[in-house]
């Protein structure tokens, strides 16, 4: 074995994620849906929870700003798992293949702590990982180099041992800034090809 460990992102790498998967069930008009996920429950607003902000205060603030949308804002919390419709094609096979040959596996994910606590128990794939670093718990968020340094310390890895797969170029750049090799994820075949370059299956 190569002595390498593989660190994965979760959203849009291991699992599809899009706010429209939930709110498309609740808002029939396509234009209204796009307005809602751009101005009310937007990815940028959602990322505050990923960074460690308390969900109660976020929701209270948003409902005060958009009181007519209170039921939809409550649905964001109650039905968040519906924003995650399923695995990214081929990626769980890749995780299983790496695990099968003893490659250490880790997670660094921008994920809110409350939502992670609801999502994690539904997905046994995470049982295959040696450790998981969740931004909302640490109050550190990619691409801050500090989250990668924390991950290396917690996982017991040197930068040279770590290979990182994430769909956001800025997050890969953050990892590279501390010496971790990174791959900007597009699909499972591309990730496999990149890992083969390091002697992994």
TrEMBL record:
Record InterPro entries: HAD-like_sf, HAD-SF_hydro_IA, HAD_sf
PANTHER family the record matches: ALPHA-D-GLUCOSE 1-PHOSPHATE PHOSPHATASE, FLAVIN MONONUCLEOTIDE HYDROLASE 1, CHLOROPLATIC
Organism: Sphingomonas lacunae
UniProt-listed Gene3D superfamilies: HAD superfamily/HAD-like
Protein name: HAD family phosphatase
A Pfam family of this chain: Hydrolase
NCBIfam families: HAD-SF-IA-v3 (TIGR01509)
